[in-house]
Write a structure and sequence with these properties.
single chain; 263 residues; alpha/beta; Rossmann fold; seven-stranded parallel beta sheet; 7 helices; globular; fatty acid metabolism; NAD; fatty acid biosynthesis; EC 1.3.1.9
């Protein structure tokens, strides 16, 4: 995939630190030749993201709150001033109250349900609507991140499972909406990852270990493997892939129960 993104420009949303899935994707995109811009939310995350972005030759950083229309409008207006068009956008944004990512799903609060769905699912639609004018002439790729808790019960994943189900459905509807303009929309579904977001889910370490020893490949995904998948989807090699959820989880999603030695 060397140089497969040469001449392409894209926005990476959701880098929190150097263990973020979005960072793994950003590195792979950069290595394939892409120019990158980054978003962050607030000064604290900005201080983390800036040196990472600069290490990939990027000085285009945008402060964005995806729950605020004015913030989103200002960020995309600023991006368009520098780059009138973009070729891809990576949406790796999700949130839920940590206190509700443990225990019983039935105890999900109305407030956190709305907040989780707004940030984790609706924000992809909101971002796509703003990216569309920058892609409609030449086509492009929108990518988001999901997890198999969207369609199977995962302990403690709770409301995030519902949010990811909505996100995957939004991916399919956006793919149909934007396809006539040559815009592809896909989701990547990694297995459990040792990220800041993943650590917020109750029992994260046990979940990571369980999938690591039971996946057909006997391994969880790496940031490099997820990044490589994103490069494929955003490059010309992925020209006819849209509306898909691509699993990068060592094959764990095909299992009906643990391996025999772990029963």
């Amino acid at each position: 995939m060397s140089n497969s993104m040469q001449g392409k420009r894209g926005l990476i949303m959701g880098v929190a630190n150097d263990r973020s899935i979005a960072w793994g994707i950003a590195k792979a995109m950069h290595e394939a030749g892409a120019e990158l811009a980054f978003t962050y939310q607030g000064d604290a995350f900005g201080k983390r993201v800036q040196p990472l972005a600069e290490s990939l030759g990027s000085k285009l950083l945008l402060d964005v709150d995806v729950t605020d229309d004015d913030s989103l409008d200002a960020a995309f207006a600023q991006l368009a001033q520098t780059w009138p068009t973009i070729d891809f956008l990576v949406h790796a944004i999700a949130y839920s109250d940590k206190s509700e990512l443990t225990g019983r799903f039935i105890n999900t609060s109305r407030k956190n349900f709305k907040h989780s769905l707004e940030i984790s699912a609706y924000s992809f639609i909101d971002v796509a609507r703003r990216a569309y004018p920058m892609m409609k002439e030449n086509g492009g790729t929108l990518l988001t991140m999901t997890y198999q808790g969207s369609n199977k019960v995962v302990p403690n994943y709770n409301v995030m499972g519902v949010a990811k189900a909505a996100l995957e459905s939004a991916t399919r509807y956006l793919a149909n909406d934007l396809g006539p303009d040559g815009i592809r929309v896909n989701a990547i579904s990694p297995g459990p990852m040792k990220t800041l977001a993943g650590a917020a889910i109750g029992g994260a370490r046990k979940t990571y270990k369980h999938t690591d020893v039971n996946a057909p490949l006997r391994s969880n995904a790496t940031l490099e493997s997820i990044g490589g998948t994103a490069v494929y989807l955003a490059s010309d090699a992925g020209a006819f892939t849209s509306g898909e959820v691509i699993h990068v989880d060592g094959g764990y999603h095909v299992l009906g129960m643990p391996q025999a030695e772990n029963l």
